[in-house]
Amino acid sequence: MRGVPYIILVSLCAFILVPLIWAVVSSLKPLEEVYAFPPKFSMHDPQWSNYREAWTRLPVGRFMINSLFIAGVSMVGAVWSASMAGYALARLRFRGRRLCFWLIVGSMLVPAQVLLVPRFLLFDLLGWVNTYKPLIVPAWLGGGAFNIFLFRQFFLSIPSELGDAAELDGASAWQTYRHIYIPAARPAVVTAALLSFVYHWQDFLDPLIYLSDFMTYPISLGLRMYQSMAGTWANLLMATSLIALLPVAIVFLLCDRYIMRGLGVIGETTGTRRR
Amino acid sequence: MNRRSSGARLFLLPWIVGFAALTALPVLVSLALSFTQFKDPLSMNRLQWVGLSHYRQAVETARPYSPDRGDPWYWNLLGGKPEDVHFHQSLYNSITFSIFAVPLGLAVSLMTALLLNQRLRGTSVARTLIYIPHVLGGAATIVIWSWLFNPEFGWINEGLRCLYRFADPIVRLFREQGTADFPTPAWLYSPVWCKPAVVIMHVWAIGGSMLIFLAALHRVPRALYDAARLDGSSAWRQFLHVTWPHITPVVLFNLVISLVFTMQSFTESYFLETRQQKDGLLFFALYLYRVAFEPPYRFGYASALAWIFVLVLIVLIVPILLSGRLWVYYAGSERTSKG
Amino acid sequence: MARFGRHPQARIENSDGATVVITPQCAGSQWQRLASIIRRAGVVVAVSGIAWWLFADTYARHVPSWMDKSEIRFAHFGSFQDYALWRDLIRDFERRHPDIRIHQEYVVGLGGRYHTKMRQQILSHTLPDVALIQLGPFHDLAEHFADLTALLPSSDGENRELAASLDELALKAFQVQGRQRALPVSGGNLLIFGNRECFTRASQFRGVPIPIPEDDWNINDFRRIAGLLTCDFDGDGRSDQFGFWLPRWIYYLPFLWSFGAELTDDRMSEWTLYGTEAEAALSFYQDLAVTDHVSPRDEEVPQMFQDVGFLTGKVAMCINGPWFLPFLAKTRLADSFFVAPIPTGPAGRVTRITWDGAVMASHLPPRRRQAAQRFMQFLVSKHAQDAIGQTGRAIPARRASQRSFTEPANDPRRAQFVEALNYSRLQPLLPHFSRVDRAINKHLLDLLTPGPNSRPEIVLAELQADPAIRRAFALQVNEDPDR
Fold this sequence. Notes:
The structure holds 3 protein chains of 3 kinds. Chain A is an all-alpha fold. Chain A contains 14 helices and no strands.
């Protein structure tokens, strides 16, 4: 009986791994073998040159730099603005706090589809279409309802004595936030940073709508272009996909140990019920 | 306290600007647009008021209606063939996808979290592994999956064929017909099987909700389990009386969030549509994108569709939130911010 | 612990146990005052920099004449080889006109995406100054482009020569209500591509010689050869090599026309795809995929496009345009593919030609307009047209440059395309092309999936009743597009 959990766990991991293994295997095959029937699981003579070709046929490097820029700048903005809003909601008292909280939670439920057209019209009026601004600026203005919520929860879980002591000593709200709460909230900072980085790395619809020049594409869109341009060069497509996955995987592995603590506070949704 | 109050506004300033400009204003504009249309959409000229006609157009059905065998079953509920078939079909697709993907995804992620919470050896590796698809998600993995689901060259059908061959002699003991020649699904090339394919893809990337569950499980006080064990409770009763009450808030959270997310899925259908599906994977988000951003740019109609979608979402979510009062257990103690 | 007000700094332990030093701002000395001035100046610079970054585009969007420089954007579609071609041409142009800068915008996408994007650009007033456009979508958008009529027949010699030297049919194709809205740049017609390796493989397998098509082959030869080419080499019940790649409807037009069927009448006032000729054409389509099964159905070649299907030898023949030539030249089929004319059908031999044109945004400020005009003229100049022809991706619109398409490689396969200009015709340009396109493809699929609807006459009736197609014709008489 003790083996059962292991069996389930191992099969789950296998389920998770199969697509990734498939991608690695086919990225190393010549094109004809990808289309072989029945499919070949084994691989002799791996074609490492596929990676070089995938890299050079399209400006994949350029796509990656674009993506890094968009996701990086958005990530900084999201953490900055979401942590400030979360701090205000958790630790400051002001009129309309409950209203703000419910607006934030409510905006999580507004479907992106409703906002699609008016936002396009707005960004058009601002002359921002065909620039990175529609992709970056929103992150600096709120940083996503989920992140604000995460920070609020985390700040609530920090014993308030720490902040009280600083305030008694005359520290301003900003100083308390900057020097007491942010260092204490490192897991939340890392988690929010990771989530928003990943979100902006994968974002597909916004670049699709707002960008037109090929050289400005992020990798998510570039990958789709690969599909349409290189026909079905599945092996090169897989090589490019894996290249595109690499930065995200690295970032994730770097922050893995913080994420559990960061997300742990979500459960304490007791927040505003009795206030 | 005045000083702090003005400070709070400053802290919230970025969010307030963002909310006003990027959420509140668009919501209002979209509501207004839904009652109007551009006579000349490409230059966005000659805005005219059309009242409720967009809404009517979206829900209208052709009457009288003589049902045909090939019609989708829900046309009967509507009372006829819809004027805008694609809208109804896309909404139906999105809802069906959510109804299957959300509970299945939550069940699997909760089970996984429970397993990982058992303090077995190697769980940290497994946890990282299971979370990875969630971060990888998006375009790249969808492309990979579409290949796995390939009816001819894909590993999934090859695996099924192996399974059939393996099971064949066993089945033959009981039945005339073996399983070796069982048909394999065409997955993304079939109007029926395309949805299960996407559900499987969804379950693959449940890492996010799994981790939230796991984090919540970690916060259940160990002492409660020890006490329960002393009482001789079975594992099931421990789960029911100790674990479950503690994680209900997260269950509600995950349920609502993943429902909202799956209802809004776009990338899957944008990447995976084939004509063999006969619009079986046309999700609402994709249809809306097409109405709004492909000729003839029916921004007004698109806004009306989006609002109908909001209504549907409310109908789905509000009962869930309300039912939360019945089954979500809120811990007695909470830390409030100091006043 | 010290209180903040009285002491210059305070030490506080944060949650990590580290000691944090907080220094409140206090202007004690000259240096600190200077530092605070510098800091404030820095903030001002940063804020105005950000404001500039945020709103310079906003100003430019509403006052287009601001920043009127000889700097223009040129957008194009196509493969990555096209990208390289335009990049080189732009370099050439900039060498000749050192005062003009051109920013190349390459928009990639499946099928209609380039034009969807172009519409979004019209919508958001971000249309490139000069852009390449295909004939089909051009007609829907023509009114948004600058009128080029003045660019053509002017008194000075160069332009008159230009009008006379471009392909007449192509030039006409880009006229809307008597105004020239685009200049034709290059075009292409459809012919049959074949893979000799597949022919050899099939002859060895069957033990009968399969001839490479003659120039005067007809539709029955085509059918017979495609049948012979379809082989199940390993005997597992499924064909490993098919005769012909079943095209989407636009590429099927040559066959449709060869059977004598027509989509519309000459004035494009009504849909005319019905009657015995149309039924025969659709039956043939069905026969290819179902009855004869010489063409693979989508599920037999999943996730393969025509190019890969042809390249991997899954199909022996396909129908494609000259843009397939540079692609194949870089593969291992470079020496073993051939090009054959369209087989003659009951109504003769017809193929489809399409042209790409260059359009210019209207209402440009003067200096940009001048630069854009220069570049437009360059695109149809002998130099640029020769360069386009040499790549072999398309037939240049300038007739004198058509030799550059065939000559340098001296390739009989390229010559076939120029020869086929004699029996090439334009496809009817229906409004709202992308939706009509989707509708026709959808109904043709019924022919390939067994069911009550898979009969040509039923498909034809459904096409006639299709709302997208009905709407396209209703548009001709200016009916509201929304209803």
